[in-house]
Amino acid sequence: MNAIKVGLLGIGTVGGGTFEVLRRNQEEIKGRAGRGIEIAMVADLNSERAKSIVGDGVPVVSDARQVIANPEIDIVVELIGGYGIAKTLVLEAIAAGKHVVTANKALLAVHGTEIFAAAREKGVVVAFEAAVAGGIPIIKALREGLAANRIEWAAGIINGTTNFILSEMRSKGLDFGTVLKEAQRLGYAEADPTFDIEGVDAAHKATLMSALAFGIPVQFDKAHVEGITQLQATDIKYAEQLGYRIKLLGITRRREKGIELRVHPTLIPTTRLIANVEGAMNAVVVQGDAVGTTLYYGKGAGAEPTASAVIADLVDITRLATADPDHRVPHLAFQPDAISSTPILPMAEVHTSFYLRLRVADRAGVLSKVTTLLAENDISIDAMLQREAAEGESQTDLVILTHETTEGRMNTALVQMQALDTVLAPIVRIRKEELA
Amino acid sequence: MNAIKVGLLGIGTVGGGTFEVLRRNQEEIKGRAGRGIEIAMVADLNSERAKSIVGDGVPVVSDARQVIANPEIDIVVELIGGYGIAKTLVLEAIAAGKHVVTANKALLAVHGTEIFAAAREKGVVVAFEAAVAGGIPIIKALREGLAANRIEWAAGIINGTTNFILSEMRSKGLDFGTVLKEAQRLGYAEADPTFDIEGVDAAHKATLMSALAFGIPVQFDKAHVEGITQLQATDIKYAEQLGYRIKLLGITRRREKGIELRVHPTLIPTTRLIANVEGAMNAVVVQGDAVGTTLYYGKGAGAEPTASAVIADLVDITRLATADPDHRVPHLAFQPDAISSTPILPMAEVHTSFYLRLRVADRAGVLSKVTTLLAENDISIDAMLQREAAEGESQTDLVILTHETTEGRMNTALVQMQALDTVLAPIVRIRKEELA
Lengths: 436, 436
Hints:
The structure is a homodimer.
Chain A: E1 4-9, H1 13-24, H2 26-33, E2 37-43, H3 47-54, E3 60-61, H4 64-69, E4 75-78, H5 85-95, E5 99-102, H6 105-122, E6 126-127, H7 138-145, E7 151-157, H8 160-172, H9 176-186, H10 194-197, H11 200-214, E8 224-225, H12 233-241, E9 244-255, E10 258-269, E11 281-288, E12 292-299, H13 303-320, E13 351-361, H14 366-376, E14 381-386, E15 395-402, E16 405-406, H15 407-418, E17 428-432
Parallel strand pairs in A: 1-2, 1-4, 2-3, 4-5, 5-6, 8-10, 10-17
Antiparallel strand pairs in A: 7-9, 7-11, 9-10, 11-12, 13-15, 13-16, 13-17, 14-15
């Protein structure tokens, strides 16, 4: 059987990795897929660099539309990124009857509903294993491997840059700014790291996970997005003393009234496997009602790990070529007629426990006022840590771990505690999850 | 569309779990599969108990052949276990044109070649996600999620009973016999625990992983199988002091001249995620050339975790019903014409590093003799630990970690060291893997 023909839109890091892995492992891949997978055309604005990567055998063009218009091409791989031209090209490829493979989480988290509908209409597949957690086959796990389960929640370290920064802050006791610069020097953070450090990239991925886990449409605009730029070394240290690590988690959880969808720094018990995922690695924990807790770990970025996911999608599509489109794995795990209208909950209704750090006057009665306010808001205390004021100091840190409550209740309590004249600085509040 | 009809052979723990999860999550599962999945007939020798589980709606028979002969049944789920009648029934179901789902690792590790060939001949699927690591979708990861990769090795904690025992031995400092009794009392070990504690169950699973990872036929008879019955609390303690945990691993690794396939207690650096998998949990690490290291963690046994895998297979088969059989995922990951004849290496050619514990006379020159013998066999030393002999004692423990060598060389060195008159007891030898 002839090789299936692939057109590549964009041959940067991931495109180059995809080309290289397809070339290097062509025998293995053909042995699995039952058919060769061949990159037949490449489009890149920098066609000189593109030619230097793919050599003479593969036509390189600067106009992506030439790839889409090529009747030989069965599958278009979009590796341009972003919401702009990438969206236009993906929709054009679908309209031309091509299957699409993309690593573009931003595009799918924001425009997924439109894109998947167009693909269904045309009877083609839009595959995106590379869009969440790079080389880890987490989308396959959520869509297929755990298909028996009512998923309860999924929570992941799904941004390598921020996990690298948090790992360095903890192990070296450094502050955020210093480590960010180091991460940029080492290539773990981009020159403009905003999307990573502000939690946007993780929120794109969490949005896709929420859709796959709960059969709801992608709703990035409803996600709560909070990054790590405000995180202080002090809190990482206190958390450690209390038996917790702080990780930037993307979390989506089913509650009675709706779905939680949020990205924020989170205290996790050090005894959990995911708390020990360090450096730029990714990991996702999924809780299903039948299977219990499962965890998936690996590299979330990089040329070849991401290529591994792109090519897995290519192999799947190669196999699916002869299947009745209605019997393929649905884009968002559930069949279109089974998509649920369960709402994403507003942040005020989200349930978590909290870590609080109050800078307080070292004076009798402070603790009693704080605990009274918490009690009045029906927030109970799990643990407390009060640093003894150093000789001659008039201030000290009061650290509190609460039991689970709602964000709304905590917001009210925070305003009241902040108003106390013995609370001397903005209260630090970090959410905490047991993940059990 | 009508529900797909499933016949269950055996409704014990896993069968009962499968029935319950299919019932409880029927809406979710149908939403994913696009079609209901219905247990239409159950065969169990204990038909009274079976009836008490499935109620009135489902016909229960004591003769499995009535299920196989039922023209309404599309998929037969074999949950009887063992090599005997289960093999006959699986082959008969295939001959009757039924797809088969099984959790029977023993059957497939030993008779897989015959069974998969029969299935191919008939154009039906034999699915076995539940056969390795219970609810963890590791077979899907190896066959599909990592399809881009040349797999380098896979290593897993794939027997919960032994991992529970090892975890208890370490955390409580108890010996094997004591913990085994406790495990039996708690239901973590069976009345006859031989298959678990002697490593046979793990070897069945490792055999399946070797076939899936490297495209070789299942060859259980070539696996090296070593259990945990000889393991002493002393060695767990020394390993801990050196920064290692001891786990029973199933390991399969590609080498230049062939494939390693082995189950044995193994020292793993405590810093590895898999070293921290405790209790009855399972985890598998897979190293691919593109993706790097990935890890999959979850419950490896139990009614509902195993049912989760059985049902994932049912969903896959439901979808595949309309696919050209040649385009389905191949049973052993690779197409029949791509199956490799790479041999399984004899144990003497396997490469590992080693932990050695020698009971030696507390006398000058002992260390020099031992290290000389190792050097003469070209085995280099990575670390050493010598306990000071207690006051009045004439013996002490000498613990050595070696760099990587072959099993054959180590065997020679062991015979020579054992012959020294200053070595006073059988030398303890445990293999060590860095898993990086």
